[in-house]
Specification:
The protein has 390 residues and is an alpha+beta fold. It has helices at 2-5, 11-14, 17-24, 29-34, 38-44, 46-50, 52-66, 105-112, 174-192, 208-218, 278-282, 287-290, 305-315, 318-326, 328-339, 350-373, 382-389, and strands at 74-83, 92-93, 129-130, 138-140, 148-158, 163-171, 198-201, 221-224, 243-245, 250-252, 258-259, 265-266, 271-275, 298-302. 41% of the residues lie in helices and 17% in strands. Strands 1, 4, 5, 6, 7 and 8 form a six-stranded mixed beta sheet that branches. A three-stranded antiparallel beta sheet has the order 9-10-11, with no helix packed on it. The chain has a three-stranded antiparallel beta sheet with strand order 12-13-14, with no helix packed on it.
């Protein structure tokens, strides 16, 4: 923990000056580095079994809650890519997979999380390259430059004082980040009784399933930017030109015609189709601008569209503008994580190593927040104590 606070994350350095003296007394320093330190052995053994780093993080968070640094009203969620300890030039093609003779602790962890929705089961798309040193790290070019192997660190923060409420390590893909947001929200509810009134996030969390989960299952206002792809470029009416009537469960076209649904679900049970009658569309003067190439017009509607409409309405209000400003506090924490704590590249390999480093870094950030916002107790002068002893 001390190493993270001072941006020195070498396990040998964290032990103190005695280890540095022992290290400098050997001529062949590389031979000594092969042997793991006592901390490393415990990290792979007792610490992993007991989930010690998670317990330390939650202990610091409980102190923040006790000092009233966590309001519990508004949470913000976001994810950031952290480079894995894997050489981008030594990857195997994803379709070929790892060589059968390859063995390591990171490979064992990779095989163990193949069915985890936050890692191997997050997507069916085969990565372009797989690292033999850390196969669970995802090959990504999301930053626009050279692609690299990376993990995602996911933060859930309370926006009142930017205290990190939870942290989760996932593979570097959007579906896993959305799952991590759900897990962190549920864990904060179960372990700390924190039920936020609103959640702030960018368009990565705008899926209908995610918004429906927030609104319908937990009653959380979705202060999330909704990325709408329904706009058409051919000059015909878009879905936004159709008005939905909640009372009668119908859509009204610009010409006033009602589009109804039979209630049949399509797209794996997530969407209903609203159609107009063919004879009504045939005699409509707006047909060339509505459905020039089809007999009737149909409008798809997600079963969670009510939650998406709620998110759109919030985004147009002044509360939505305020939430977009408050959401930047997560990005500031990521900037502090990479530039001050120097966690722009992992030192440990495997999902467990990434999880440990992200937890330690988040704990160090919360400790810094405590030291900054909680005043030290005032010390009474010595003569005051002497008078009490008399």
């Amino acid at each position: 923990m001390k190493g993270f606070q001072f941006a020195r994350r070498n396990e040998l350095v964290e032990h103190g000056p005695r280890d540095a003296q022992i290290l400098s007394s050997f001529r062949n320093r590389e031979a000594l580095l092969v042997d793991h330190s006592t901390f490393s052995k415990n990290r792979h053994g007792r610490f992993r079994e007991s989930d010690l780093f998670r317990r330390v993080f939650e202990t610091v968070l409980r102190r923040c809650i006790r000092e009233r640094l966590v309001g519990g009203e508004g949470f913000a969620v976001d994810a950031s890519l952290i480079k894995a300890d894997a050489n981008r030039q030594k990857g195997f093609e994803g379709e070929k997979g790892l060589p059968p003779e390859a063995t390591s602790r990171a490979i064992d962890e990779y095989l163990a999380v193949l069915d985890d929705a936050a890692f191997g089961a997050a997507t069916e798309v085969t990565p372009k390259f797989v690292s033999p040193a850390d196969p669970a790290a995802r090959w990504t070019g999301a930053h626009g430059g050279q692609a690299f192997f990376a993990y995602s660190t996911n933060y859930l923060i309370d926006v009142e004082h930017a205290v990190i409420v939870d942290v989760e390590a996932t593979t570097a893909i959007r579906q896993a980040e959305v799952l991590a947001a759900r897990r962190m929200i549920e864990r904060s509810m179960d372990r700390f009784g924190l039920y936020p009134a609103r959640l702030m996030g960018d368009s990565a969390y705008d899926s209908a399933e995610m918004l429906g989960w927030l609104v319908h299952e937990h009653g959380i206002e979705p202060h999330v930017t909704v990325f709408d792809k329904s706009a058409r470029k051919d000059g015909t009416f878009s879905r936004d030109d159709f008005t939905y009537d909640h009372q009668h469960d119908v859509y009204r076209c610009p010409g006033g015609t009602a589009l109804r649904t039979t209630g049949t679900l399509v797209d794996d049970g997530t969407t209903m189709l609203y159609r107009a009658l063919q004879h009504e569309c045939a005699g409509c003067a707006l047909k060339p601008r509505c459905c020039p190439n089809t007999p009737t017009r149909k409008v798809p509607r997600s079963i969670h569209e009510g939650a998406r409409d709620m998110a759109r309405q919030i985004a147009r209000s002044w509360e939505g503008a305020t939430s977009r400003w408050l959401r930047k506090k997560v990005e500031m924490l990521f900037a502090h994580l990479k530039r001050i704590l120097k966690l722009d590249r992992l030192r440990l390999r495997g999902p467990t190593g990434a999880h440990h480093e992200f937890l330690l870094a988040a704990t160090a950030q919360n400790l810094g927040k405590l030291a900054k916002l909680v005043p030290l107790p005032s010390l009474k002068p010595a003569w005051h104590q002497a008078e009490r002893l008399r």
